[in-house]
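Aim 2 progress update. The chain analyzed this quarter is reproduced below.
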Amino acid sequence: MYDFKDKETNVRQLNNYMLAKTLSMFEYNGLPETIPYRELEYLLQVNGYAFITEVDGELYALSGSIGGEVDAYNRPKQITINNVALNFNKTLSLKDDGVLIINDDMLMGLIPLFNKENTMLIENDINMVLHGYNNRIKTLISASDDKTKESAETYLKNIVKGDLGIVAENAMFEGVKAQSSSNGQGASITSLTEYHQYIKGSLYNEIGLSSNFNMKRERLISAEVDQSEDSLFPYVYNMMKCRLKAVEKINEMFGLEIFVDFGSVWHFKNRQYVDDIIGSDEKLPSEVENTIDNDTLETTEPATTTEPATTTEPTTTTEPATTTDSVPVPLIVGAPSETSPVIEPLPTIEPVTTTEPVEDKPNENAPVEPSNEPSNEPNEPLNEPSNAPVEPSNEPSIVPLDKALIQALEIEEIMEMLKDDSLTDDDISLLNDMLKEMEDKNDD
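Predicted structure tokens:
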């Protein structure tokens, strides 16, 4: 059963609970088997320091008494160690015989802090327990003689058991006096709870853990929640700095590769720490691992911008049509054919600064030859017969037929065209001449 009056035992238990949490504050890698990290951290946080030295060829973290000669700053130079298990009892030099690891710059450890805060917590626990007891007592009973006292105690015992109390004599009423215990003074349970949260929050903040307490009895804004963040780091990073310097000396003296870093929840609250060097940008080991080196890891994306393509309009050069003895073969300009050679594109096109492109005006006298590409114009090609009836019209043709175009047509097509009533007399005469000329060639 918890004895709230045993203050010393309760404080010691709370200290052990806190040490169970803070022993995981730091993590080590590369420690010898003879130095468990739990024992090393326990010595540092309880005693404030530990001395690393060799005993029979093995490294140990030992505790001792620092004293002896002092240097110019009144700092001891020696430590006396007495370890019964190792049968080791010597006075060693702090500089030459090993490395002194300190928990903080003042060699205090965490026990003085835990003793103070946990003592206040235990005292407040007593206040809350007594407050609960006082709430049970609504009235105080006083008796004038022993007989009346025994009758009053018997009455209360029967009430606690659940039995109805019976008063047998009138002397009971005459000798017993009841008084109210509530005097309107004393702390309320709300204020005691707030005080308890304040003490515990201060304790956790000292060891780098955020524990907010609300003294306003209202909602907190973000700035008020974050205002205590800065107070979390000074003492914790002082502890980290002392361990980093000691580990560096141990590696140099004994040829080891020991690394230390924050552990547990402290690992996620890293910030740049103070290393006693002005202008130094050195970071914690975890920060170095998690920081991306932009100088080495930066990848240059391939440039996707290409040189501006100078699009030159293709120059349509009209080659002279090769006429055969039979039907002239039309020349298709601007569209590839099956027999036409494939023109390979130039490997590179240098950008040329040109003025506004001048569109070539089509030559009205150039022969218009059929193309294999589909045309978006609504007029149907001449080489396809139309089945739709053609209504006669006396209006003259808007576009006069050219003789070069007529020469490229078959005789059958000329015969079909002569059936068109919309042709002018000049067109009919031209078609007849061409038809006669082609028939004469075929007869030859």
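The beta strands are 26-29, 49-55, 58-62, 65-70, 76-83, 88-93, 99-102, 139-143, 176-180, 259-262. The radius of gyration is 54 Å. These observations will guide the mutagenesis experiments scheduled for the next reporting period.
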